Protein 1
Amino acid sequence: MVDDENKSLWPFALIYVGQAFSLFGSTLVQFSLVWYLTRSSGSASVLAIGTIMAMLPTIFLAPFAGAFVDRWSRKWVLIISDALTALSLVFLAFLFLINSVAIWHIYFIMFFRSLMSIFHTTAFQASTSLMVPDKHLARVGGLNQALVGLMNILAFPAGAILMEFLPMYGILSIDVITAIVAVIPVLTLGVPQPKERVQKKESLLSEMREGLNFLLELPRGFFLFVGIMTVNFLVTPAVTLIPLYITRHFNGGAFEYAWAEAFFGVGLITGGIVLGVWGGLKRRMLTTMLSFFVGGVVLTLIGTLPPDGYRILLVSCFILGFIIPIGGGSFFAMLQSIAPPELHGRTISLVNAASAAMSPLGLAIAGPITDLIGPQIWFVTGGITMSSLSALALTIREITHIEETMHNRKNNINQTPKEK
């Protein structure tokens, strides 16, 4: 582990640029694969299965990946996950080249890419606090969110254009090239490791339990954990149902939906840049909860708009996009700050897995309910719940002062009896 005063941002910046290239290639290929399934099958079931295959690793395997990341060299996790992803695309490109690709091949690649992405993302997030001074963690979190929004805006149209001029094996080769670009700085600059390394004597389950215990032993940790899962359970259907809401309630079409996505994407980029420059409030949980409170109010507003309120919907989509990187970036910066570096992989992966696990459950319940009473109920219910839980959290000192509490607890543990 490197002390804050000895950390230099330049190695991280070079690695970050390489990761941005890789993210562009991955987003472009993901869009191309989804569109290929759409164009070749015309089946909603085929697309649904593809989505599920991409979600399964996050739900069931992310906690195990986090335990492995804390055991292994994070540098080599980044390199090998990128390399294996590239090799899987070389295999799929070869199948396209010889006209032998089948839908199940694409399912397998989507599953495998998602699995490698879990290892890669967890290792990178767990390593960020070892390369970036604590005061800049929220800024990096904001830039990460802005980068995702920017890549969606750039890679989607780029993928659509390239599919008109290149065969699928040509498009897949782009991600192979960007993966190589991402590996070079990691290979040459390296990634620091925490002082405390997980010993392989313990079972994976006991290591995962150690990460879970840390989260639950946080001040009001159970409240935070359950709150995240509850909000994700209710809000995911609302966000997913926006296209249906636009067609049914606002009598819109593909053009109106595209504008809503565009406003959301611009908000995502803007919010990420703002957090990247600003860094958030000193108490990062205040930034998180205030952002989520505003997000809940906006979701509730969306669910109560009249049929002629489409322009308000566009503004609301921008605000939602704006607050997501500010709230989410601040939360993960807080988690990186208070968790011991040797637990970063497990804590981050457990939070991600818990959130992702609620998505398919919420969507499964939302379908029949929406058919009966419409999608507005999910915006209103999700928004009110999100705002209420955030407002309640803002009144609980243990939550708003969680970083000071954990840092003081850590300092007391590290002090000798004489120092105390």
Protein 2
Amino acid sequence: MKPLKIVSLRLKNHWTQEYIAKKIGITKQAYSNIETGKRKPSYKVIIELQNLFNATIDYLLEQEVDNINPISK
């Protein structure tokens, strides 16, 4: 999961880490660790985040591509 993606979604909704943690059934510290990338979320937490943010799992888990270097012919 891309931590910056869930941070962005949280801030867009004006939610605190504590609010999200309570909604998905984990501690604030556990959620904070997910946001900072110190901890990977369980499948259950991913499903809860999907439902809370109304986003697809693909969106939450997709990798961002920083630089795309096309192969020249």
Protein 3
Amino acid sequence: MTGVETRSVVRDSLFLLAEIRIEQSAETHRVRVRNLSDGGMMGEGNLRVQRGHRLTIQFRNIKEVSGSVAWVQDNRFGISFDEEIDSQIARRPLQGGEDLPTGMVERSWSHRAPPAPEPKLLRKI
């Protein structure tokens, strides 16, 4: 792997737990969330999933989120959410007596990588 970051979405490394249910199953599995963005997550755990599986994910502070498995490697897997979430809400500690926010947001481009510069403005080195 190179040292160049090619992803267009900012991801934060963190340690959260989430409950995941594979579609068509009533059983839930607790997994570790290793990184989380508004559009997806990387999870780790003893969950046997395959690329394309449909899932429902429950984070703290956020209502259930649907998504699909994008990739699997050993006991880690990537999930692409059907709708963007506010990933910052998932990180907040639970507060007693508060109504839980939905955590769903309108599509935002503020977390995306900046646009590429105009080629004519680049100089050769």
Protein 4
Amino acid sequence: MECTVSWTGALGTRSGMGFVAETGSGHTLVMDGAPDAAKPENGGQNLAPRPMETLLAGAGGCTAYDVVLILKRGRHDVRGCTVKLDAERADVDPKVFNKINMHFTVTGKGVPAAAVERAIAMSHDKYCSASVMLGKTAEITTSFEFVEI
């Protein structure tokens, strides 16, 4: 796996904290820093997600992928899956995630709660590389609800 991240500055200038990532799979992702009122030249323009937000989103995508795949492989009629992640970061540098809660909302027909719980646990404990890695610094908790449609 590879990725190249390049500083873009702010709207083509060489100030600001904008970045573009070009992934090995041929996709691009734009990131930006938070604006800095005290030193505007050191802050972002708030035009894209922060890098740490992108990391959190990647963990959510990784685990949601697993949950859907595990449920589908179990021949469950899953129709939707969302995961809302709430994270807390350390107060001092490096400001790693120290707590993450992942709340899943799974929709479908006749999917047993035990199957959803098992799929989440399997993702969390075994398959989702991103959450296993983040679990080295963060306490990760999960919760879910199933919505019958």
